[in-house]
Amino acid sequence: MSEAPAAPPTASADRADGIDLLLRPPEPRAGWRLLPARVAAMCTVELQKLRHDRTELYTRAVQPALWLLIFGQTFTRIKAIPTGGIPYVDYLAPGIIAQSAMFIAIFYGIQIIWERDAGILNKLLVTPTPRSALITGKAFAAGVKSLIQAVVVIVIAALLGVALTWNPLKLLGVAAIVVLASAFFSCLSMTIAGVVLSRDRLMGIGQAITMPLFFGSNALYPVSVMPGWLQAISTFNPLSYQVDALRGLLLGTQAHVALDLAVLLVSAALGITAASSLLGRLAR
Amino acid sequence: MTNDAGAPQTGADAAGGAATPSADAVSCTGLAYAFGETRAVDGLDLSVAKGEVFGLLGPNGAGKTTAIRCITTLLPVPAGMVRVFGHDAAKERMAVRRLLGYVPQQLSADAGLTGRENVALFARVFDVSRRERGERVAQALAAVDLTDAADRLAGTYSGGMIRRLELAQALVSAPRLLILDEPTIGLDPIARTGVWEHINAVRDATGMTVLVTTHYMDEADQYCDRVGLMHRGRIRALGTPAELRQGLAERRGTETLPTLEDVFRDVAGSGLDDTSGDFRDVRSTRRTAHRVG
Predict the structure, then answer these.
(1) Could you report the predicted ipTM of this complex, rounded to two decimals?
(2) Is B233 helix (H, G, I), strand (E, B) or coil?
């Protein structure tokens, strides 16, 4: 066994030229400032990626456009669903905004598994970022991505003649609701990722839960027309609260926005807790 | 600013309370970690001195990556003790992480971001202030000769460039300990040399400690100050490459100096068996090799 060699030579002035900042560690953030900084970092990455490649944004706009154009226009004519006196396409629009945002968030777990396989997750976990802060950052990054998608759907809905509000405060409320709900759905996805640990399994489960979440909500029809058992399920479906709030804010229909906001806040917090506690399984 | 070894101080002494000033960069005592019935690390004792380039060598499944994951706080420390610059890796995780720069085995740069954005992300998560972020990122990119390619998407980089980019990501927080897990796997000889030249240049300039795992005995021989030969979860031989080769020559009574690979074969004996590396290890290695072409 050998002794360790002497320390390396002291950096000479010319070597240190141009790397002076790399010799000095950054001042650590502590306390409450750490979480918003990590959330901002993750959201920035999401926006940078979207700026470089907008293909997903365009392709994901097709399905909601078809829902509004075909399903919405047709059911407006049929008049089979009680909408409280507004055209069905108007009634449908908030549901489709929520659906398209959920579809983005619910597959976020696949991204985290991909990041694990690529070594990106491990590298992030070796930074001074608590797991809960990393998950919160990812959740809000999913929210930002969903929000951009929601803007696209709102524009499509407006072009189809849906009478949406343009009140900035209400639109701010819409943004908050979309981000919170997407944070929950992305955490649900990341929680499942932490359990199943593989992309293939997560794809299957994601597809299996997406449709029940959508059809078991008030996105397409009011809860009152559902059978009793489905009404009971809908009570526990965060998508129903998201759609209710979006309808109230965008169309001015009767809604329980405060309750919806509270449910989504609690759901997001629970989702972040669950996903954070399982993140360690992905690192192994 | 210099440390007690005379090298510039590159890390966060203030990162996590009082660490012993004379502590080794890394100290593992009786470290053990098992995956089910498989003991990946089985009583590892290891000390890495400040400022040295230490190579942890061994075949797939030797326990190198598991040991590295315990040191980097990615895995808990269920048995034994791991200290990084005196900080307990089990109890002072945040303090340990602030001292580390980590390059995993996989090509871990985000292909959907530019080189600059990749490095800026790590500047952000290490709390580099907005005021100096741009300049610090630029310095990290310049240190690995990627200034000209900084605004290209990382997806367009060659394997060697991605490794250098990952090095820049690790350097941007001025770590005291740089941990590289198989940094040259899958690279062609020229790219391998390039990566090592940058590692050495940065080490010379900053005085940081480097802990590297590798399969390549020739690289370890050429670039590491000391090496530990790991097999079945433990260090089986430790010393400078020259000492290990000389030791084997003396045991064999030959004048011809053996290679480090001979030393490894001598230490491992016929133990390079079916337990060397699980499916995931091998798949990960092959994926990385495939991605770098």
Answers:
(1) 0.86
(2) coil
